[in-house]
Amino acid sequence: MDIIRITDLEVSYRVGVTVEERSRPQRLLLCLDMEYDLTAAIVRDSLSETVDYHAVSRWLLEFGEGRQWKLIETLAADIAATVLERFKLPGVTVEVKKFVIPEAASVSVQLRRTHKTIAKRRRKAE
To answer: Which domains does the chain have, with CATH numbers?
Structure first.
């Protein structure tokens, strides 16, 4: 499978365990590895045969509006599930970087999801 990568997209989302931390948006960096078969796009040199990474990035910039999360784990899972569905991807890896420990460059969570893994996790939760 081929990969289209967005690296360190800067977004401002409300995320944090405490109410105080979620009271204002904070800077996060998002990395996405979007799995997609690029064969047709390469042969036809056509945007309609690939993932429009510009559209994905614009969507991610607005994804946090009016929403909040306690955990970056939950945020990463929400992004993965929605990106899979919205952009018709077979798989995606999402990393969310947060800047809350002054002595560390960042703290991050990375997860990979496919339609199959999401369905399996939903069944487990029920």
So the answer is: 2-125 (3.30.1130.10)
